[in-house]
Amino acid sequence: MKISEIYNMDIYSDGGQYLGEVKDAIINLQNGEVSRLLMEEWKNSSEEEVKKTLYHKSVLFRNVKNIGDVVLVSSSKQQSSESVSGNEAEDLSRKR
């Protein structure tokens, strides 16, 4: 599946909660894998804004359980918002 095929798909937790729509993705170019799905379009912002987006408006791709008519992700809040490290936010905010 191409990443472009999941843009605008609804994202639901496995508990049935609507989380948003896929608007963008973060791809780790070193290993060629999708690391996060974003529920808002990516904007080059300050480190603080990047952290907010990563924490509140993204899901880790490794938490995706299934992609079909919708994107189904693990409902564990800890899993879906973990790893918003300062390094990740700093790296992403620097790439303007």
Give a short overview.
The chain has 96 residues and is an alpha+beta fold.
Structure description:
- Helix 1 (47-56) packs across helix 3 (86-94).
- 25% of the residues lie in helices and 30% in strands.
- It has helices spanning 47-56, 77-81, 86-94; strands at 10-13, 18-21, 24-28, 33-38, 58-60, 64-67, 71-73.
- The chain has one domain: PRC-barrel domain (SH3 type barrels), CATH 2.30.30.240.
- The strands form 2 sheets. Strands 2-1-7-6 form a 4-stranded mixed β-sheet, with no helix packed on it. Strands 3-4-5 form a 3-stranded antiparallel β-sheet.
- 14% of the residues are buried.
- A hairpin with a 3-residue loop joins strand 6 and strand 7 (71-73).
- The longest helix is centred in the middle third of the chain and has 10 residues, at 47-56.
- It has 3 helices and 7 strands, in the order E-E-E-E-H-E-E-E-H-H.
- It is an alpha+beta fold and 96 residues long.
- The radius of gyration is 13 Å and the shape is globular.
Secondary structure layout:
Elements: E1 10-13, E2 18-21, E3 24-28, E4 33-38, H1 47-56, E5 58-60, E6 64-67, E7 71-73, H2 77-81, H3 86-94
Parallel strand pairs: 1-7
Antiparallel strand pairs: 1-2, 3-4, 4-5, 6-7
Helix pairs in contact: 1-3
